[in-house]
Amino acid sequence: MTIGELSKATNISEYTLRYYEKKNLIIVNRDDIGRRCYVENDVEWIKFIQRLKETGMLLRDIEKYSQLRYKGDETMPERLSMLEKHRLYVLEQQKKWQEYLENLDSKITYYENSISDC
Fold first, then answer.
1. pLDDT by residue (tens digit) across 36-78?
2. Is the separation of the CB atoms in 3 and 37 below 8 Å?
3. Using one digit for the tens of pLDDT, what is the confidence trace for 24-47?
4. Which residues touch 12 (CB under 8 Å, ≥6 apart)?
5. Residue 16 · residue 47 · CB < 8 Å
6. Quick one: average pLDDT of 18-29?
7. Which of 83, 58, 88 is closest to 69 using CA atoms?
8. What Å distances lie between residue 39 and 23, 29, 34, 35, 62, CA to CA?
């Protein structure tokens, strides 16, 4: 799979994919003339990187996770620990956003009631 095909499969720009490679988030095989050759496993890995980013994991932590991933199965306990820690962070953020949502709902209800009373 070429970088263009991977870009379409993941909905991530070629520029971003090259950046991921530069930061060693992905290790890419190359053909005889140096073109990048991606495999289906790369698609899922890149989608996972995006989910980590979207849930607020810091780039340095994603880099560390990636390095561990490429070292192999012996790093699974450390990766599990990282994901468990990040899960707690996501739950904290979810709780915070729930509070924000409740506050917005309360304000919306206030305005709706105030408008209907007029």
1. 999 999 999 999 999 999 999 999 999 999 999 999 999 999 9
2. no
3. 999 998 889 988 999 999 999 999
4. 6, 46, 50
5. no
6. 92
7. 83
8. 19, 9, 16, 13, 20
pLDDT in tens, 85-95: 999 999 999 99
pTM above 0.70, yes or no: yes
CATH code for 3-117?
A: 1.10.1660.10
36-37 and 29-30 strand pairing: antiparallel
Helix (H) or strand (E) holding 51: helix 40-54
**Residues sharing a CB contact under 8 Å with residue 31, sequence separation 6 or more, in sequence order:** 37
Write down the domain spans for the chain: 3-117
Distance between CA atoms of 9 and 40, rounded to whole angstroms? 10
Cα distance between residue 8 and residue 18, in whole Å: 14
